[in-house]
């Protein structure tokens, strides 16, 4: 760590503390995350999901890991590109909720990062505003500490997602939930960007389900047959509530935005769109207006977006706000 000079502490979370730092040789500004846990071997470090996934994932909308450093006292540091802020801080620093086009601008980028991540076989499992890092108009998915491989056959017993963004199947304790938990979290985040307060702010697991039912209306055999069976097996009864009109909760959201939030927050994970399906939702149609169709198709088919392609998409977005 001698080559880095720590400047200010910029964040702290469950797994560590994060500093803004500067590389003494190159003057590059970076973010250094020091993990709370000690690591007694390199194998242990390399088996961390955050390291495993970030060694593979390279995308303009995913925070890039530059270096992993293990000190003699077994402490572990991750060196990341530095980002000015996170989406929670951005929300806190503004008086007005985001407009429809601003929400489109942020979410279009995040869905591209997610589309790439899911295509590479990883899901995040802890999407929330403070894990979405923002710098100069770019947004990147950070904190891969809870990521998992989609096809690992492990039972996902650990309930990692922060409660407010936790999908109902995870709240009910399902052990083989899918990457669709990320899509649920994105629905909750999108709504929060319009409301500037969380959509489902549960105080505990029971209250979490109550909050979800009070907004969406309780699940029915049509909306989530599997969930009713799951609840039956647990002897759990969903609170019987009619739900509310989402448009009344977020008056500035367009009809298309509400439609996308509703489908992302479908009770049944199978009914939630994938990230690539979300990108083709009418809410994002204006994002493709000035991109040649061949480019859009290539970006989607290849499952990657090159820097050049991304810049075009970004400038397209910037022009629309
Ligand atoms: P944890 O796993 O402990 O939650 P995170 O990686 O989410 O750690 O980092 C905690 C906080 O630190 C973030 O919410 C963010 O505010 C800040 N942070 C993380 N990475 C960066 C970065 N690359 N640049 C600037 N700030 C960061
Ligand atoms: Mg975090």
UniProtKB/TrEMBL annotation:
Q: Which residues bind ATP?
A: 33
What does it catalyze? L-threonyl-[protein] + ATP = O-phospho-L-threonyl-[protein] + ADP + H(+); L-seryl-[protein] + ATP = O-phospho-L-seryl-[protein] + ADP + H(+)
Q: Which GO terms describe its molecular function?
A: ATP binding; MAP kinase activity
* Keywords assigned: ATP-binding, Kinase, Nucleotide-binding, Serine/threonine-protein kinase, Transferase
Q: Return the PROSITE patterns for the record.
A: PROTEIN_KINASE_ATP, PROTEIN_KINASE_DOM, PROTEIN_KINASE_ST
> Which SMART domains does this UniProt record tie to the protein?
S_TKc (SM00220)
Q: Does the keyword ATP-binding apply?
A: yes
Q: Which Gene3D superfamilies match?
A: Phosphorylase Kinase, domain 1, Transferase(Phosphotransferase) domain 1
Q: Does the keyword NADP apply?
A: no
Task: Spell out the Pfam families in the cross-references.
Answer: Pkinase
- Span of domain Protein kinase: 4-284
- Report the family membership: Belongs to the protein kinase superfamily. CMGC Ser/Thr protein kinase family. MAP kinase subfamily.
Protein's name in the database: Protein kinase domain-containing protein
Gene source species? Dipteronia sinensis
